[in-house]
Amino acid sequence: MPNPRAAMLVIGNEILSGRTRDANMHFLAGEFTKRGIDLAEVRVVSDNRAAIVAALRSLKADFDLVVTSGGIGPTHDDITADCVAEAFGVPIDVRDDARAILAAHYERTGKELNEARLRMARIPEGAHLIENPVSAAPGFILGNVHVMAGVPQVFQAMVASVLPGLTGGAPLLSQSIRVERGEGDIAQPLRALADEFSDLDFGSYPFHENGIYGAHVVVRGTDGARVDAAMTRLAETFSA
Amino acid sequence: MPNPRAAMLVIGNEILSGRTRDANMHFLAGEFTKRGIDLAEVRVVSDNRAAIVAALRSLKADFDLVVTSGGIGPTHDDITADCVAEAFGVPIDVRDDARAILAAHYERTGKELNEARLRMARIPEGAHLIENPVSAAPGFILGNVHVMAGVPQVFQAMVASVLPGLTGGAPLLSQSIRVERGEGDIAQPLRALADEFSDLDFGSYPFHENGIYGAHVVVRGTDGARVDAAMTRLAETFSA
After folding, report:
1. Does one domain contain both B156 and B202?
2. Nearest to B61 by CA among B120, B135, B143
3. ipTM, two decimals
């Protein structure tokens, strides 16, 4: 069975303006790879309602699984939940179980559950909540869309809450070697190896450090013995 | 006149597998913001021909300007130029001026311009070359699509080659304050300020550090006096 194909939607003005460098995409990519889920596409859009809804509609139709990050806090620019409801054509309102989670959290921390915070209990109809052990306000799952917070600690905690319920394939294994030769010198033998080991994925990632041109050649596959065999051949081919 | 709206397409298995953390998106976002170009969407796709062509067709139609990064080297997984040709419906072949650039570079560096390296001279018909002062192999511009290398040093050099030719709007200015209060406490006054200064963009980016919950509130706009006025009001509102 092929691995499930996943997409991520990052809702993040702060990434598009260059203010923040992405962390959640990098984290999710690593977790999915370990678990045998292929992260096949990522989109980053701003907190614009039309852009978010269009991306959600496209990704939820094209992929087995979608993860969103960002836009579920209490401020005016947090519109992800409403956009998910619109993309699925379902109503959205404050839900009692989500409100109870928030009420308990703010009572414990001595803060007021005001109107702004209550926005975080707005959950589209039919969704399941995702636990947030860091700051209480839940994420949710609707259909194949998993809606999570943008703050990295909270995002990571939500991913941990959700991962055990996701069906992955065989974990993708990878090994790499560093070749201190220009990519143009290794391209032809590398293509020959890629053709020979057609069940594996061969990537070449060039580097240029201290005047040395070279490439990290990465072999990925689900069968460890095959990856080992390819690495042995790579080492023979490029050690001369 | 509104600022031009740009999109970026990152062709990067290594980012989707979690092997590499993105750098080019972050760099381009900062450069565009300084120059008054709105980076409105980023997509990351793997080096899959159908995925690249579909993303190119969608982005070049929806945005004023598209920048791609990655997939223009000499190895078998470098298929960006062919995908751009397909997306525009134009032929692609080795072009004399690009071949001459490569030939001069490899003669200077004592390397062979072999078949693999010659792939980097494949340029879609009608494209203009983008200078690559780092490693010679050029990028190109076809229509509104700017095709650049994925290696960060080369990507940055190509962006520098291209930026002077791009028409930007007024640079987007931003200022921010750090508020050590939960977002839920600042959401209502912040919404009121955002409504009052409707010509500016107000973002709230929560943080949680050493047990302190707070938010960086960022004000963005093209009119410095208005941004200053909003910051004064923000400071008054949240200094109590």
Report:
1. no
2. B143
3. 0.86
B178 touches chain A (CB under 8 A): no
Count the domains in chain A.
Answer: 2
Count of residues making up chain A: 240
B184 and B77 co-located in one domain: no
Find chain A residues with C-beta within 8 A of B202's C-beta.
76-77
pLDDT in tens, B182-215: 888 899 999 999 999 999 988 888 887 777 888 8
Task: Please calculate the CA angle A38-A44-A45 and round it to the nearest 5 degrees.
Answer: 140
Residues A90, A116 share a domain: yes
**Same domain as B158, residue B69:** yes
- C-alpha to C-alpha distance for B159 and A219, rounded to whole angstroms: 30
Domain finish residue from B134, B165, B196: B165
CB contact under 8 A, B15 and A29: yes
pLDDT digits (tens, 9 = 90+) for B122-132: 999 999 999 99
Is the same domain home to A216 and A119? no
Residues of B in contact with A74 (CB under 8 A): 183-184, 187
Q: Answer for the pair A87, A57: CB distance below 8 angstroms, yes or no.
A: yes
With beta carbons under 8 A apart, name residues in chain B contacting A76.
Answer: 187, 190-191, 194, 202
SS3 of residue B235 by DSSP:
helix
Q: Are residues A104 and A181 in the same domain?
A: no
Q: Does A188 touch chain B (CB under 8 A)?
A: yes
Residue of A nearest to B207 (CA): A151
Q: What is the CATH number of the domain that holds B177?
A: 3.30.70.600
Which pTM value belongs to this model? 0.86
Q: Identify from B48, B49, B75 which residue to disrupt to test chain A contact, counting A C-beta atoms within 10 A and taking the largest count.
A: B75
Residue at which a domain ends, from A165, A185, A209: A165
Q: Are A42 and B51 in contact (CB under 8 A)?
A: no
- B151–chain A Cβ distance below 8 A for any pair: yes
A127 token code pair: 């969704």
Give the strands of the sheet with B38-45, arranged side by side.
A128-130, A139-142, A145-148, A65-69, A5-11, A38-45, B38-45, B5-11, B65-69, B145-148, B139-142, B128-130
Q: What is the CATH number of the domain that holds B109?
A: 3.40.980.10
The parent domain of residue A230 ranges over 173-238
Q: Which residues are bridge partners to A206 per DSSP?
A: A215
Is residue B127 domain-shared with residue B207, that is, in the same domain?
no
Based on the number of CB atoms within 10 Å of its own CB, is B163 exposed (0-12), middle (13-18) or buried (19 or more)?
middle
Output the pLDDT for position A1.
67
Asked whether B11 and B69 are in contact (CB, 8 A), the reply is: yes
